[in-house]
Amino acid sequence: MSKRITIDPITRIEGHLRIDVEVDGGKVTKAWSSGQMWRGVELILLGRDPRDAWAITQRICGVCTTVHAMTSVRAVENALNLEVPVNAQFIRNMIISAHAIHDHIVHFYHLSALDWVDVVSALKADPVKTAQLAESLSDWPLNGRHVMTQTLEKLKTFVGSGQLGPFTNGYWGHPAMKLSPEVNLLAVAHYLQALDAQRHANKIVTLLGSKSPHIQNVAVGGVSNPIATDSQSVLTVERLLALKPHMDALTDFINKVYLVDIAAIGAFYAEWTKYGAGVTNYLSCPDFPMDSKGTQFLVPGGYIPNADLAQYKPITAFGDAYLRDGVEEGVKHAWYEYSKPGPLHPYKGETKPAYTDFQDDGKYSWLKAPTFYGKRAQVGPLASVLAGVAAGHQPTIGYATKVLDTASSLLGSKIPLAALHSTIGRHAARAVRSGVMAEVMVQNWQALIDNIGKGDTKTFNKPTFPKGEVMGYGFHEAPRGLLSHWTVIRDGKIANYQCVVPSTWNAGPRDDSDNIGPYEASLMDNPIADAELPLEVLRTVHSFDPCLACAVHVVEDNKEVVQVKAL
Amino acid sequence: MRIVVLGVGNILLSDEGIGVHAVTRLEELYDLPAEVEVIDGGTSGMDCLDQVSEADHLIIADCMRSKKEPGTITRLTGDQIPAFFKTRISPHQVGLSDMLGALNFHGLMPKNIVLFGVEPLSFDLSMEPTPTVAARLPELVERIVGELAAIGVAVGRKAA
């Protein structure tokens, strides 16, 4: 007898992502991923000045703020064939990497770790044993018995006060929780330390972006940070030097804590390398351009079909035709209607709502279904890491090897690269990519200082908008994966604008050929120990770092907002 | 003394952005002393952690659904403000309550918190609040100013 489970919303804020699964024989046999909120930012942009699009699109979402700003200016610059001074690229690259590292750390420690870590069990831990375990894995200075004892005391006080704070309502004691009390305590200690780590990342974004949240320094044609070596009101060498300690602290945390913790979670939950692969066509884009045209990148990207790294096809430049020509979005199962049948390319994209009820075999989501040359594709750090490995990118290979080797030694058996095609693999890939980006961040910092040293302080090329129509698209390997903005500009005004976001690629519904999307595919065959507490569904969906654009940040005075229905 | 006035919300979704509109208006109309930091928190949560931590006073303006008449302004203080991950299913989109929850566990909670929540009429796509809610904006700004005065911060209107 199959049982239907509906989790609504699976993202925190009301009305975003709804997941439905059918469970039979203790595992998932059918899945639906439904975006429950209308976005429509495209309509706000029509008729506006393309130079303002970045400031508006970065308000789409509460998490992916800077990523829309960057992708938007890249789209308009591409349309204008406008080059960007390298100093601006370096500044943007530092913001991008710091923001993404911030995002990954918050996602792992503060959001999804609670799917794997039983905080209440940590109360039973022996802090001395916890410290011994931690110190055997890493020489991080905050792993000692003093820190672990303090953490335990803090947790006891917290729980003793009847106030679980951020840990309220976890799945404590769930049969799928498997870590020892000591490992759980270690995770709580690192949860707290990660709060400090992410503040370093945010400082970098703020110092360079002039404001956080929502950076202010981006401009079509570059950045608005004037560089001067002797003025206090602009980006000075002194301020640049002030960035470095934050970068070093972040790098340390990623290498000595994040990468180690992810290996440990991977080893202790090794069975989760067997679930959650889903769609194994991977799409990513290169990022961190080091030249003014966007043809030289520090991290590669491209397409990998059927998990076969040998068939990797790179994407090599801003405006790359292979990516540009392959993307379409279908609405057969989405609450939109097109003026003609079949999927549409984003330049021709339409945003016309056509709401029905939730129809299992009909329309059931506000997300469209993107395809790449007709196929579904998974985007995200895993896609980027696999492209890096396929392309022979040494930093990616180095960090991936480190994680797999550490996990293998903890488990006592070899974990192959192929284990990354999984729920736990997506978490591991996020840590690997953080390691890569910490290097990228410092490289760009050095590149900027060196270039200023040569006397080049240019940060902006003025755009000019031609009469008539131009089209352009921008891409960015955002924390959740490939993000692209597509724009048609007519007589200097926006005539069409479409955002094809990572969550659309991953969380989209069935496509025009009724093929299921990456979230849906990843849930198939997941075990479900208790249909009333479907922790396993959360684990797999959270491994994508779900984030449906357009946050509603409303305060609610009623606390019960999530419904889990098992019928 | 460190005083932070934080406006949060998505300005693309009409009344959702009322908190941001309020702090923008506050800065336009008033001369604020140096110890008052005004933050347009936009749609972000965790990004504000640093700016908010260990403030002596935190005044928040936000949109709040509490089944009252649209435009109603509700004042909450201290324990009335939810500070926890709101749901057991708490993945992305870290909001205000999560940020406060994290600060609380970390021992960095602002000493005093006041939240002004405005009941929305609509979350339709628009960069302006609805007229019903916009009509209450001056009052919301006045109440923030009143709150500052109660703390002992004299705030004067800018010369017209």
From TrEMBL, chain A:
Lineage runs: Bacteria, Pseudomonadati, Pseudomonadota, Alphaproteobacteria, Rhodospirillales
Q: Does the keyword Plastid apply?
A: no
Keywords annotated in UniProt: Iron, Magnesium, Metal-binding, Nickel, Oxidoreductase
Q: What broad class of enzyme is this?
A: oxidoreductase
| Membrane topology, as annotated | Peripheral membrane protein
Purpose of the protein:
This enzyme recycles the H(2) produced by nitrogenase to increase the production of ATP and to protect nitrogenase against inhibition or damage by O(2) under carbon- or phosphate-limited conditions.
Family that this chain belongs to: Belongs to the [NiFe]/[NiFeSe] hydrogenase large subunit family.
Q: Report the locations given in the UniProt record.
A: Cell membrane
The record's listing under Pfam families reads:
NiFeSe_Hases (PF00374)
Query: For Ni(2+), which residues are the binding ones?
Result: C61, C64, C547
Q: What is this protein called?
A: Uptake hydrogenase large subunit
What this protein catalyses is: H2 + A = AH2
Listed PROSITE patterns = NI_HGENASE_L_1, NI_HGENASE_L_2
- The organism of origin for this protein: Paramagnetospirillum magneticum (strain ATCC 700264 / AMB-1) (Magnetospirillum magneticum)
From TrEMBL, chain B:
User: Which InterPro entries does the entry mention?
Assistant: Pept_A31_hyd_express, Pept_HybD-like_dom_sf, Peptidase_A31
Kindly list the GO molecular function terms attached to this UniProt entry. Answer: aspartic-type endopeptidase activity; enzyme activator activity; metal ion binding
Query: What UniProt keywords apply to this chain's record, in alphabetical order?
Result: Aspartyl protease, Hydrolase, Metal-binding, Nickel, Protease
Sites binding Ni(2+) sit at E16, D62, H92
Task: Specify the superkingdom.
Answer: Bacteria
Task: Extract one GO BP annotation from the record.
Answer: protein processing
Family matches, as SUPFAM superfamilies: HybD-like
A Pfam family hit: HycI
Q: Which family is this protein grouped under? A: Belongs to the peptidase A31 family.
Task: List, alphabetically, the NCBIfam families matched.
Answer: hupD, hydrog_prot
Question: What functional role does this protein have?
Answer: Not known. Could be involved in the processing of hydrogenase.
Q: What is this protein called?
A: Hydrogenase expression/formation protein HupD
Whose protein is this, by species? Paramagnetospirillum magneticum (strain ATCC 700264 / AMB-1)
